[in-house]
Amino acid sequence: MTTILEEPTTAATILIVDDAPENLNLLGRILEDADYRVRRQPTGHMGLTSALTAPPDLILLDIRLPDIDGFELCDRLKQNSDTKDIPIIFISALNDAGDKVRAFSSGAVDYVTKPFQAEEVLARVAIHLRHNAFQRQLEMQNRELERLATTDPLTGILNRRSFTSYAEHYRARADRYHQSGFGVILLDIDKFKRINDAFGHDIGDRVLVEMTERIRCGLREVDLFARWGGEEFIILSPETPQEGVIHLAERLRQAIAGDEIAPAGQVTASFGVAISRRGEKLDDLIRRADFALLDAKTAGRNRVQYVE
Ligand SMILES: Nc1nc2c(ncn2[C@@H]2O[C@H](COP(=O)(O)OP(=O)(O)OP(=O)(O)O)[C@@H](O)[C@H]2O)c(=O)[nH]1
């Protein structure tokens, strides 16, 4: 079985900051012999510049340096978003508990006292590199999970759940700060079943993606846009007066009905528009937009309907 220590973490770059040339050379050689790439810096400022210019994978840091000391260097690196996650191991002749505590409170992951054993330094370096790599991988996976949980897989826009959560936030803020209302536009592709029936589900999917693009192009950055369900989409337009929201819906209607979407031909959509009232629940607002959408469908489709 391979243990975490045995897995090679080669090709990682390690920055050593130490003012004693013999330490720089000895440590550097030990690490190079273990196939790490090594950068050596003899002062705090040079170490800082080196780390900021090209962040290494790990830093071995002496405490006593001729200019800024290791603690301050560590503090500065931990405050910078580009370097804050780099594992820092202090390597110092100071063997006082207070110095060790200060090192860990600066954000160091480990502390090695001089004179050091090569095997120990290598073991500590390897484990912190592995740990850091796992951590980054976990963060990436969490971001991906977050993306999957909040977006619609076909169109890449927000899904219903995340739309509702953002919209609740807008609603609460509008109420709290007595801001003007916001508009909700609910739109539904007309006779979409026919497109699926005539051209197949894959073409239906392509139409949904193209529709999404046309709508997205007509929106502002502050507008929320989500897939509400099958062929139904929802838009929240913050701090927009009633005429503005109706005008936006009309522009989107024209953009959708404009150019044909091959091979399905002309695709149209019906729109329901409602403006929030102070204290109104989000569900009730969306229900009003849904009534308006139903009216638009009943009145012949490919139109915008507004309800008071
Ligand atoms: N291709 C594809 N079709 C979907 C998707 N989600 C829902 N649909 C289809 O969308 C169609 C919706 O049909 P209906 O609710 O009858 O509405 P419509 O045909 O658009 O008619 P109106 O809304 O009355 O104009 C159904 O055939 C669903 O199978 C999807 O993700 N991809």
From TrEMBL:
Family matches, as Pfam families: GGDEF, Response_reg
EC number: 2.7.7.65
Catalytic activity: 2 GTP = 3',3'-c-di-GMP + 2 diphosphate
Keyword terms: Nucleotidyltransferase, Phosphoprotein, Transferase
Domain Response regulatory: 13-129
Residues of the GGDEF domain: 180-308
InterPro entries: CheY-like_superfamily, Diguanylate_Cyclase, GGDEF_dom, Nucleotide_cyclase, Rev_trsase/Diguanyl_cyclase, Sig_transdc_resp-reg_receiver
Domain of life of the source: Bacteria
SUPFAM superfamilies, A to Z: CheY-like (SSF52172), Nucleotide cyclase (SSF55073)
Residues recorded with modification 4-aspartylphosphate: 62
One Gene Ontology MF term: diguanylate cyclase activity
NCBIfam families, per the entry: GGDEF
Designated name of the protein: diguanylate cyclase
Organism this protein belongs to: Thiorhodococcus fuscus
